[in-house]
Amino acid sequence: MSDPVSQIFDRYLDQPPTLPTEVRRRLEQACQGEIIQLYALADLDASLRLCQIWVTLTANYLAVIRVADRRVDEHIRVVPRGRLDKIIEQPGLSCTVVHLLERAEEHPFVTIRYTHRQRGAIGHLLYVLDQQLNGRTLEFTPSDERYREAIVRPIREAQASVSGNRLAIVWRLLGYLRPYRAQVALGMFGATVMTLARLLPPFFTGQVVDQVIQPFQGGTLQLAQAWPLALTLLGGLTVTLILQECAAWVRLRTMAVLGEHVARDLRTQMYDHLHKLSVSYFSSKQTGSIISRVGSDSDRIWDFIAFGVVELSLSFLLLIGLSAVLIVLDWRLGLVMTVPLPILLVLIYRNGRVMHAFFLRAWRKWSNLTDALSDVVPGIRVVKVFDQAEHEKRRFGERNDDFTDECFRIHHVWTGFWPILMLHQIQEALNRLIAGRTVVAIAHRLSTLKRATRLLVLKEGRLIEQGTHAQLLEIPNGVYRRLHDMQIQLNEVHAI
Fold first, then answer.
1. Final residue of a domain: which of 388, 411, 437?
2. What's the predicted TM-score (pTM) here?
3. Same-domain check for residues 103 and 138
4. Under the phi-then-psi rule, with left for phi > 0, alpha for psi from -120 to 50, and beta for the rest, what region is 461?
5. DSSP run (H or E) holding 71
6. In a domain, 386, yes or no
7. Residue 112: which H helix or E strand, with range?
8. Pair 39, 84 in one domain
9. 21 with 43, same domain?
């Protein structure tokens, strides 16, 4: 298991947790073999687009290198630290620009641009250079931890209130339901009845087959006897379906209205809290980020409170209920079907953690998109006067494309997980079914036949190949081998 700092980088941050090995090697080579003592990531280029520009300090040199599309730029800017004479820092609402100048020069020899996320790591680097200008040389052991801690510290501080208990934030959010206990109880009642009603149709269907259809076909049940029993069972099935739909209507209506009340309370509380914050807070935050928090983020929270908690509870209730019904009907079949459930839950939990990181990045990019809009609308006159419409359209389009690409990645991972999980379950079920039996199987998906003791390949009604899976793959230009390779290639294309 990775350490807590690495987990924060993996879950919340879209940047390397340390200076990449190849970048370190190139920089130390360019700095006459001196060891890198301190480094930081400047994540904005001259056009204020997100990028990776590493700024490093050795004992005598300052070096800057850019990484684009995981490729290290051939050009490395290396400057002796002794040339530095002045540091000019220009903080802004969403980023900061730092100019490093030498004596008797008006133009900087190095310009660093970075977002507020990199402020801690860049601040360490600038402090060392500032102390150098004041005649003091700081000596310290080279370490990656200064960079890592500087980046994750703001996230840790934001999590400080709930770091002792992972469920604390859930209980805190559930506190918004206290004023609406009656609605919560009614919604949970409707959801519980709906879930329990879903368990009854298979029972009635089984009774119709076992008590009516099979005895009637076997001649042991007369039509006069079968007809009333069938009507009774079908009536029970109809009542169950009606009850299920009524309970679903009660749940949906109650929880939807409850969700709107919770959303209103969230927005009101967040807006009231904004007026208690200092001016420096608004100077360090993007306008779009604040608007996104009050608007779309609060909607996601109430959706979790009003529907997510209920759906999670009902899913566990349905899972337990179905397992109990299967065990009661046939305890052997029930155990076979319920034993894999812990594995499924672990896989779903791990996939949820992966999806959580994707959604965090998507929400940040949505915040950037909202920020581009909130900058232009209040200042539209300035945009038109200085003829910046095309620039703003490009900026909005880039952020819109960035957000859309992130959503595509989410859909790709999300929709790819469940088919793979289902295929795995089907394969496991087949393995359990054929254990200890002689089975004749016909399949077009060759992966289901890997464990067969003998495979027969037919073409145009004639037997052309036979053997085990491994033996058939060893036949040069064999039909089975071609089909196997073709299916692998199709799966790879589908994954892309």
1. 437
2. 0.49
3. yes
4. left
5. strand 71-80
6. yes
7. strand 110-115
8. yes
9. yes
Single-letter amino acid code for the residue at 127: Y
Choosing from 303, 330, 357, the residue where a domain stops is 330
The Cβ of residue 342 has, within 10 Å, a number of other Cβ atoms equal to: 9
Residue 79: HSE in the Cβ half-sphere, 13 Å Cα cutoff: 19
Residue 23: what residue type?
V
Q: Is 64 helix (H, G, I), strand (E, B) or coil?
A: strand
Mark whether 325 and 234 lie in a shared domain: yes
Asked, for residue 335, whether it belongs to a domain, the answer is no
Token digits of residue 473: 């793959």
Q: Are residues 418 and 477 in the same domain?
A: no
In a domain, 185, yes or no: yes
Residue span of the structural domain in which 158 resides: 4-162
Where helices occur in 435-474 by DSSP H, the ranges are 469-473
Q: How many domains does the chain have?
A: 4
pLDDT digits (tens), the chain, 496 positions: 467 787 778 777 778 889 988 889 999 999 999 999 999 999 888 888 888 899 999 989 999 988 876 677 667 889 898 888 889 998 876 788 999 988 766 788 889 999 888 988 999 899 999 888 888 887 777 778 889 888 888 777 666 544 445 566 677 777 888 888 888 888 888 888 887 887 788 778 878 878 888 787 777 878 788 888 888 888 888 898 899 889 889 988 888 888 888 888 888 888 888 887 777 677 666 676 677 777 777 777 767 766 676 777 777 777 777 777 777 777 776 777 677 777 777 877 777 777 877 887 887 788 778 777 777 777 778 778 778 888 888 888 888 888 888 888 888 877 776 666 665 655 555 565 555 566 666 665 666 667 677 888 887 778 888 888 788 888 888 888 888 777 666 554 444 4
Could you tell me if 153 and 104 lie in one domain?
yes
